[in-house]
From TrEMBL:
Pfam families assigned to the protein according to its UniProt record, in alphabetical order: DUF1285_C (PF21028), DUF1285_N (PF06938)
Domain of life of the native organism: Bacteria
Gene3D superfamilies: duf1285 like domain, duf1285 protein
InterPro entries associated with the record: DUF1285, DUF1285_beta_roll_sf, DUF1285_C, DUF1285_N
Protein name as it appears in the record: Proteophosphoglycan
Every DUF1285 domain range: 19-85, 89-178
């Protein structure tokens, strides 16, 4: 990248609200040495990005495209980055109207975005590559996904009801199976 990470940051500063990524379709500018690690860390040129506002800013312009690749976008630039597992991590949850038929489970991501588990943001649970532990993943906007961290998944599992040989939770009128 010609000016690097700082130029991209300056280009994005001052934006209010979520950028209209669905309107941006620039040509590929190249590859940027950013990796989103499986543990949720964002790493640029081998160094972790420690400034949460910067991570939040970049997450706001991240999109996964039909080719399965991840891109940071501006109206005039498109930079491919690497994602080891999921783009974001779910770090907290709370329950709205707990125990009721219409309860909603709301998740909070590592970039402080909130998502209500339901038809729009469904949860799937598969197995990790080793097959030893579950991999709970929430589908998000822009074809992105967020892995539930272990503590959140355990809290979610505590809400599960056993039936039909599996464990299920219900949120926003939709039932989700928690076992892979």
């Amino acid at each position: 990248m010609a000016g690097g990470l700082n130029d991209l940051e300056q280009h994005l500063q001052g934006q209010s609200g979520k950028p209209p990524l669905h309107l941006w379709h620039p040509e590929l500018s190249g590859d940027m040495d950013i990796v989103i690690k499986a543990n949720g860390d964002w790493v640029h040129e081998g160094t972790a990005i420690k400034r949460k506002p910067l991570v939040k800013l970049f997450a706001s312009i991240l999109r996964r495209e039909e080719d399965g690749e991840y891109y940071l976008l501006t109206p005039v630039e498109k930079w491919r980055i690497q994602v080891e597992q999921t783009a974001l991590t779910i770090v907290d949850m709370d329950i709205i109207e707990p125990g009721r038929v219409d309860q909603k489970i709301r998740f909070t991501s590592n970039v402080d975005e909130q998502y209500t588990l339901g038809k729009k943001y469904p949860l799937t649970v598969s197995s990790t590559d080793s097959g030893r532990e579950p991999l709970p993943v929430l589908a998000l906007d822009q074809q992105l996904t967020a892995k539930l961290n272990r503590a959140v998944f355990y809290r979610l599992a505590d809400l599960a009801v056993e039936k039909e040989g599996g464990f299920y939770v219900t949120s926003d009128g939709v039932e989700f199976k928690l076992d892979a």
